[in-house]
Design a protein that fits this description.
about 400 residues; alpha/beta; Rossmann fold; Glycerate kinase, domain 2; 2 domains; five-stranded parallel β-sheet; 14 strands; Glycerate_kinase; glycerate kinase activity; Glycerate kinase; EC 2.7.1.-; Glycerate_kinase_RE-like
């Protein structure tokens, strides 16, 4: 029997690689004849680079701008001409000790752009940007600034942060990184929110980043100004702007030359995914990025189809298996990919809020939770590794009579 282990992290407890390692140890102890293959995954947020590294990518370590402007040690992953950038590792909410209205106004996505620029400068022609877990709500302005855009206010170059965008007067995209012209960008995100409005980045996700109602209004105003300024900005004629969507060019006046087409900022701001990561999704779409579900991107990068071929069972999981898991999270994405190969999937988790029929509808043959063994949540989190090993005999015993396909 061959089993492929493809879990996501147990947030606050174990990274995905450790989840897989503990499951593997338990399975080998319970049934030594089982062939176990470990393939930790992620959904595009925290852990995406780690999943790429586990799949054979190489780490590139560097210093970049953190969410509040101070330099942070970070990394991205590279294999051949493909680079994987994880926003949570450079501009992540988890990097803030205590998010509050002040940090929500100042947080920047500049570090993401620095990582993308570094990758482009070292030969990457495909750059995957995983955007979960962001601290900023700056519409990706910091990211674009790091890639060569110039943002100008009344007093000169604009400082970073979503609140500062209210003072934006003009944007110049002529200096965008030349590598963007030939690069393929992939936005790894499951978020389908637009940039602005009641379902937008500030209104929906701002409070999770420390924004109070007044700060949400400030951030919304900044994003609105950002879109309006870009809508007046001509698309560069040369390679750096090759992927930027153009709005219809304004009609030239009598006797004048045809005016350059401006950025299609208003149309892009309304697209699904523009509101991802405080608007970094919008900036990626502006640069011509292809938007794909994060788990699908990670599974492709990790070679899931090749690794799952011939498996009798896939085991996936995450810390909390609940209604949110049904909308683009790793376990359901893994189950769907395994089902396409004719392989059944079971899930392990810290806790589950899914009814058995919900789990089955999501493609999961069974769900095994650590709280089945240790009902106390704090102790379950603290002892997640040993408890995962203890779950293994249950998985083996439960699945034997079911069959595996």
């Amino acid at each position: 029997m061959k089993v492929l282990l493809a879990p996501d992290k147990f947030k606050g407890s174990l990274p995905a690689a450790d989840v897989a390692a503990h499951l593997a140890a338990g399975l080998r102890a319970a049934a030594p004849e089982i062939e176990v293959d470990e393939l930790p995954v992620a959904d595009g947020g925290e852990g995406t680079v780690a999943a790429a590294l586990a799949a054979g990518f190489t780490a590139v370590r560097l210093s970049a701008t953190g969410p509040l402007g101070a330099p942070v040690a970070t990394r991205y992953a590279v294999r051949g001409a493909t680079a994987v950038v994880e926003m949570a590792a450079v501009s992540g909410l988890e990097m803030l000790t205590a998010p509050d209205p002040g940090t929500a106004r100042r947080a920047t996505s500049r570090g993401v752009g620095e990582l993308v620029a570094h990758a482009l400068g070292h030969g990457a022609t495909t750059v995957v940007v995983g955007v979960g877990g962001s601290a900023s709500t700056d519409g990706g302005a910091g990211m674009l600034a790091a890639l060569g855009a110039r943002l100008v206010g009344q007093a000169g170059d604009l400082p970073d942060g979503g609140a500062a965008l209210r003072d934006l007067v003009a944007v110049d995209l002529a200096g965008l990184h030349p590598g963007l012209g030939a690069a393929r960008l992939v936005l790894a995100s499951d978020v389908d929110n637009p940039l602005l409005g009641p379902r937008g980045a500030a209104a929906v996700y701002g409070p999770q980043k420390g924004a109070d109602p007044a700060t949400v209004a400030v951030l919304e105003a900044g994003l609105t100004t950002w879109v309006a300024a870009l809508a007046r900005t001509p698309v560069p004629a040369h390679a750096p702007g090759a992927g930027i969507a153009k709005a219809p060019a304004p009609a030239p006046g009598a006797g004048s030359a045809e005016a350059p087409a401006p950025v299609a900022a208003r149309e892009l701001a309304g697209r699904p995914g523009a509101g991802a990561a405080g608007g970094v999704g919008f900036a990626c779409l502006l640069l011509g990025a292809e938007r794909r579900p994060g788990i699908d991107v990670v599974l492709d990068l990790a070679g899931f189809a090749r690794r799952a071929a011939g498996a009798d069972l896939v085991i996936t999981g995450e810390g909390s298996l609940d209604a949110q898991s049904l909308h683009g999270k790793a376990p359901v994405g893994v189950a769907a990919a395994a089902a396409a190969l004719g392989v059944g999937t079971v899930a392990v988790c810290g806790r589950t809020a899914l009814a058995p029929e919900q789990a089955r509808a999501a493609g999961l043959l069974a769900v095994h939770a650590l709280t089945d063994l240790e009902p106390d949540t704090a102790r379950s989190i603290a002892r997640a590794g040993p408890l995962l090993e203890q779950l293994a005999p249950r998985i083996v015993a439960d699945l034997a009579p079911r069959g595996h396909r």
